[in-house]
Write a structure and sequence with these properties.
CATH architecture of the largest domain: 3-Layer(aba) Sandwich
Order of helices and strands: HEEHEHHEEEHEEHEE
Distance between the termini: 54 Å
Strand content: 25-35%
CATH superfamily of the largest domain: ABC-type transport auxiliary lipoprotein component
Number of domains: 2
Largest sheet: 6 strands, mixed
Structural class: alpha/beta
Oligomer: single chain
């Protein structure tokens, strides 16, 4: 009987631990600040970033309608929340562990996206990611948001391409055949570079 009780307690403890370990933090994505770009452009990038953040499977991204309700009740404007104190106040009101705030900007032909991940409990920026691209096509602008979203989880999913240790390509939704085909093409096309590919965090070999 004692052995059975011990096994039961161990199993219960393990299940509780697993449940806790897999719990996703509540996060919110605020409207991005637009600099030298239209408000609509910044809204599109913020919405796409939120979608990609959800796809990572690492966060419980809070519903926008719920956030807007709280904003209206507190007479906040999402596009105007740049002060860290207001961000923390909002985070507590919507029960978020983290809030993502970003700036989408343009300097001549250079487009830049910078996103900060604010820890509501500590009141500090826990992580900050940024990326820029010169004279991008529309799809490349969306790729900026996708890249930043996955950078917050350290990538480790889909296909990653490296040249001389620098990540130059990322396709989170590719399968292994697509990844291997692209890796072979890059090695053949750029023999002068040290080309490496990862799929779901593992080095691709063939």
């Amino acid at each position: 009987m004692l052995i059975i009780i011990c096994i039961f307690l161990f199993s219960f403890a393990y299940i509780s631990y697993a449940s806790t370990a897999e719990e996703k933090p509540n996060v919110a994505v605020l409207d991005f600040t637009a600099k030298n770009l239209s408000r609509d452009d910044a809204d599109i990038i913020a919405e796409f970033f939120k979608s990609e953040l959800t796809k990572t499977g690492k966060f419980n991204v809070l519903d926008r309608n719920h956030i807007n309700k709280i904003l209206n009740e507190q007479r906040f404007q999402s596009t105007g929340i740049t002060d860290i104190k207001n961000v923390i106040q909002l985070g507590k009101l919507i029960n978020a562990q983290y809030i993502f705030v970003g700036t989408y900007s343009k300097l001549d032909t250079l487009f830049m996206l910078n996103v900060d991940m604010v820890n509501i409990q500590t009141g500090k920026i826990e992580k900050s990611q940024n990326k820029s691209i010169e004279n991008p096509q529309p799809k490349q602008k969306l790729d900026l948001a996708q890249y930043i979203a996955y950078s917050f989880i350290g990538f480790g999913v889909g296909y990653e391409l490296f040249w001389d240790g620098l990540r130059v390509g990322f396709e989170p939704e590719w399968n292994i055949d697509q990844a291997m085909s692209n890796l072979q093409w890059n090695k053949k096309t750029y023999p002068e570079k040290k080309v490496k590919g990862l799929f779901n965090g593992q080095v691709i070999s063939y």
